[in-house]
Amino acid sequence: MAEIAHEKEQTFLITTARPTRRQVQLAVWMLASLVVALLITMPFARTPLENTEIFLPAYASAILVNELFTAALLVAIYAVQRSAAILVLAAGYLFTGLLVVPWAMSFPGVFNALGFDMGLQSTAMIAVMRRIGFPLCVIAYVLLKDEDAAGKLETGPVQMRIVGMVFGVTAFVGVATWLIVLGDDLLPGFMEDTRNVTPLWSYVPAVSVTLYVTGIVLLWRQRRSVLDLWLMVVLATLCIEIVLLSYVSGGIRLSIGWWAGRICGLISASMVLVVLLSETAMLYGRLARALAQERRIRDARLSEMEALSASIAHEVNQPVASMATNANAGLRWLEREYPEAHETKAALTRIVRDGHRAGDIIRGVRSMFNRDSQVRVPTSINDLIAEVVERHRAEMRQSHVALDLQFKADMPVVTVNRIQIEQAVANLVTNAIDAMRSISERERRLSIVTGLGDEFTVLVSVADRGAGVTPAHAGEIFKPFYTTKPDGMGMGLMFCRSAVESHGGNLWVEQNKPCGAVFRFTLPCSIEVAPQYLRDAG
Ligand code: ADP
């Protein structure tokens, strides 16, 4: 049970939820816009923008904040999901985020006034570490995800691992920066002067692009989640950035092409953060709506319960009182000087009948509250209805009722308690057949139609050509023990409504055209099929 709940939780997370078609379109649209921006920049790319160093601290701060927030949100997801892959990705973001600080501080001409001068090669070396470290973490994320898929999720204290990761990455960044700054003379000569790169630098973009493309290919192979989709876009954006920084701008720092590349970098650093935040807000909204609906249903059920228990007490009281009266009468017939066997038998027969009636009432109530009522499984509503209809074929033949089934193909799945919903559909079908028994002037036809309702629901309509339900009675018929049938119990529709509402759906009755009644009910689609729902609903 705990595992089912855990699995359900997973389908809500952006690390496991599949991307919708709209999200894929947005991702493609974003990439296309960036490529267009790259093409527009090309003719002016090498034009230097003098004195723009002053913008670098602001740029670096934005990257730092975005990447640290992304890392923090990923860590929060890790705490829920316990996937090592997510922790490695969070480490990647923390690593590049922290490294941006020494990168900006060592950038020639930016913090000189404060007395920072870290040597010619330091900035380039830190940039190399960021360029290579991040895609390596993404690749590790993809490979570790395979392990997660094989069910090897971490167990044990997550706090220790999170603290270990944060401490490890911070210490690594600190030590690496310290070594780079101290050993500037020993570093490879990537920079000719403060603005221009040496031919040695050409290896850096080549290696980075290879790693980015490897990451994209690995992610493409899996394409399991929303996060995978946006990580592909992040890597593609980083590719565009490096092309702008190293090739289009000819490696000239602070040129138009170089700044365009930096903007790409900023977009890339913000992307996963924006997606994480928007998905979190969306999930929060969905959760708030679900809670409000649950509370409404609970309140409604409570007052229904009060009415129901009063009605049950009243209904059971009747046959029990009648049984006592008949038992007394039977005894009196037996106590006579010449016992009246015939009258006694009649009294006993009435007692048996009342006993059955009381038993039926109790059975009906028990079926509503039995323990299995919480077990819900993903179900095809079309298959469920087809099964119920099959069971009623003989009854329909006997009552000369024609059947018209209109099932929408590819209906989204609903997660329901099969027994309850089957029982609800069976009640509606039986009522429809009953309603047409006295009809002789027109064809007796039962129509069952399935389709999509509003707000991620499936809609089922059960229509008959009987006498119909007048608007005045439309509310009454759902009340317990309301019946117009001589042998009816009046609990069927109350049960149907209670079953449908406990699944988060609605049941109501309308007038059928040109005659009869149509009972309609909705059931929410399983949350994981929302994308399919959106596609089908057009
Ligand atoms: P029962 O079938 O035992 O009477 P229900 O709760 O299922 O209990 O139905 C309550 C009443 O609603 C029925 O007695 C009938 O008067 C009315 N009703 C239900 N379904 C239909 C229908 N399809 N057409 C007309 N009246 C209906």
From TrEMBL:
Database matches in SUPFAM superfamilies: ATPase domain of HSP90 chaperone/DNA topoisomerase II/histidine kinase (SSF55874), Homodimeric domain of signal transducing histidine kinase (SSF47384)
Keyword tags: ATP-binding, Kinase, Membrane, Nucleotide-binding, Phosphoprotein, Transferase, Transmembrane, Transmembrane helix, Two-component regulatory system
GO MF assignments: ATP binding; phosphorelay sensor kinase activity
InterPro entries linked to this entry: HATPase_C_sf, HATPase_dom, His_kinase_dom, HisK_dim/P_dom, HisK_dim/P_sf, MASE4, Sig_transdc_His_kin-like_C
EC number: 2.7.13.3
Membrane-spanning parts: 26-45, 57-77, 84-104, 124-143, 163-181, 201-220, 227-250, 256-277
Top-level taxon of origin: Bacteria
Domain Histidine kinase stretches: 311-527
SMART domains: HATPase_c, HisKA
Enzyme class: transferase
The reaction(s) this protein catalyses: ATP + protein L-histidine = ADP + protein N-phospho-L-histidine
Entry protein name: histidine kinase
Organism of provenance: Parvibaculum lavamentivorans (strain DS-1 / DSM 13023 / NCIMB 13966)
